Amino acid sequence: MSAPTTNIPVAIPAGGSSRAPGSQPGATGQGGQGARTIAGSIPGARGIAGRLLHGTPGRMRLFGLLGVIAAVLLGAVSANALLASQAAVERAANNTAQVVRAQSIHVDLLRADAVATNAFLVGGLESPDSRARYEGAMARVASGIAKAAAAQPADGNALGVLSERVQTYAALVEQARSNNRLGLPVGAQYLTQASAGLRSDAIPIVEQVVKANEERSQKEFDRSNSSLQLLVGVVSLAGLVAIAVWLARRTHRYLNVSLTSAIGLLLVALFVTATTITGIGRATRDVAQGDFQSAVTLANVTTAANDARANESLTLIKRGSGAANETSWKTDRTTVETDLGRLSDTTLDPLWSDYVASHEKVRSLDNGGRWDEAVKLSTSTATGGAAKTFGDFDVAVTRARDDAGKTTVSSLNGLGGSAPLIAVAVALAALAASWLITRGIGQRIEEYR
Question: Which residue ranges does UniProt annotate as crossing the membrane (predicted)?
Answer without folding.
Answer: 62-83, 228-248, 254-277, 415-437
